[in-house]
Structure formats: structure tokens, C-alpha cells
Amino acid sequence: MIRIQHMASPSNPSTVLVSEFILICFPNFQSWKHWLSLPLSFLFLLAMGANATLLITIWLEISLHEPMYYLLSLLSLLDIVLCLTVIPKVLAIFWFDLSSISFPACFLQMFIMNSFLTMESCTFMVMAYDRYIAISCPLRYPSIITDQFVARAAMFVVARNGLLTMPIPILSSQLRYCARNIIKNCICTNMSVSKLSCDDTAFNQLYQFVISWTLLGSDLILIVLSYSFILKAVLRIKAEGAAAKALGTCGSHFILILFFSTVLLVLVITNLTRKRIPPDVPILLNILHHLTPPALNPIVYGMRTKEIKQGIQKLPRRLL
């Protein structure tokens, strides 16, 4: 049931304002929803299970109480929150047609998506710096990457991205939404929601564009620089097999980070050229971007390391 409110405004006393939004996932492929829910459910369970396992392992294994693993824990927490913010609602739409979402829930989802995605990007940057110090300055690593460093880095990640992205949902929530409340998306993105408004949204969209490119762009530049220095340091390693091992580990990290950043770039391009690209493409990419990195991060970053593998093998005995 679509609810609307009759509210008077100074400019138009008879303005009709909506009081909730309706999310329409894949408007051109409604019959695919139930089939698509199967791989999405699998990825969701994989992401939640892998990240929860990683967090519990690091929490219970005393030997893993080190800065590098604290950063992995932060990444897992961000992934879990992102998944829980987006995917349960998407699956509820697919399975039960629960497509309505209240104003507060929509803008809260918008805030969490914008802030936590940029927090994850910033965490990748800190982890790239951590790997650079570990490979290029191994003797100084314990004195540089300390528990205090991780605490300050975590506060920086949360404060920078939370404060700078907060105006996006605030600006969007201050707009008037007249009569139209059908969002052709599975989630409350700023672009999908604000274009329903009967107000001018130019400043809203400009702010998101500038902030997104400033935060994500600066993170990506620093990540690329860090891995460039890592590559340079790895090529100087003389020990047999050490260079190949370091390249394999850092290479998988860098590929995952590029995937994370590339999907964001594709989303921007598809939104700018949406008249030439089916609207279902950016919708699917947006959902996968909230599922694929959370599912792969704990595997690529955590479970491939010897210490975490050993901790996971001990986990059943600790929990029983």
C-alpha cells in the first residue's frame, strides 16, 4: 500500500508529498528475481560466514592480537555492516515482495552505504601502507605499526568518511518528494532517490560526485603508490622464493582492491550513460558491489595466511 501525505507548502498549498518509497528491483526482468535470489543468498551466507569466522578466530587466538589482524578485523566489521544494510532488504523484496521502505530507513541505508564504502576504501589504503612497511622496513615494522597506530587509523577512517558523507543523506532527506515514490533500484542510492524530488537536486548530486571522487580517488592513488613501492622493494629481495611469495600475496590484495574501485567507476559511468545502457545493469552491479568484496576479502586477506589458517583449525575445539 502506497501512502501519501497532503501537506501544505509556502509555494504550493496543495502539494502532495509521499511518506514512503517503493523499491522496484530489475524493472525489466521481474520474472528473474527468484532465480537471482539463489546466487545472492549464497554470496550473502559466504560473506557473513567468512567474516564472522575471521572475527571470532582473531578474537579467540591470542597470537593474532597484532596490528595487522586488527586491521583485518576492521575490514570484516565494515563488510558485515554493509551486507546487513543492503542484502536482507533485497532478498525480502525478491522473496516476499516487501518493496516499501520508510523515509528514515531509506536515508539511514543511504548514509551507511556511502560512509561504509568509503571507510572500506580508506581501510584498504591503511592496509596497503601496513604491507609496504612490513616488506620495505621489516626491522622498523614493530615500532611503526603499533596498536596505537591502528587505533588512530581506525578513528581517522571512521571520522573522515562518516563526517564527509553525512551531508549526502541529509541533503537528500531535505528535498520535497511530490507524488512520485517509485525507486527503480533495489537500494536507496542518492542518485535513484533524489531524482524523484520536485526540488532542484544539482547541489545534492554535485556534492556526492565531488566527495566520492575526492575520498575514493585519493585512497586509490595512495594505494597504487604503496603497491608500487612494495613492488620495488620485493624485486630487491634476495632470499630464494621470498620475492615470489610476497608478490603472490600483495598481487592478490591489489587485484581485489582494483576490483573494488573498478566496480565503483563502472557504476558512475553507467549512471551517466543510463540512456544507452539498460537500467538493470547498474542495479545488478550495485548489488554485487555490496556482496562480492565482502565475500572475497576474508578469503584473500585472511584465510590465505598461515597464522589465520592455524587459528581456524583450532576454532572447533575452542568453541566446544
UniProtKB/TrEMBL annotation:
Pfam family name, one: 7tm_4
Record key words, sorted: Membrane, Olfaction, Sensory transduction, Transducer, Transmembrane, Transmembrane helix
BP GO annotations: cellular response to lipid
Membrane topology per record: Multi-pass membrane protein
Stored InterPro entries: GPCR_Rhodpsn (IPR000276), GPCR_Rhodpsn_7TM (IPR017452), Olfact_rcpt (IPR000725), OR51/52/56-like (IPR050402)
Localization of this protein: Membrane
Membrane-spanning segments: 12-30, 42-62, 69-95, 107-129, 149-171, 210-234, 246-269
Gene Ontology cellular-component terms listed: plasma membrane
Domain called G-protein coupled receptors family 1 profile: residue spans: 50-301
A GO molecular-function descriptor: G protein-coupled receptor activity
Main subcellular location of this protein, as a coarse class: membrane
PANTHER family: OLFACTORY RECEPTOR 56A5, OLFACTORY RECEPTOR 56B1-RELATED
Protein name as annotated: G-protein coupled receptors family 1 profile domain-containing protein
Organism of derivation: Loxodonta africana (African elephant)
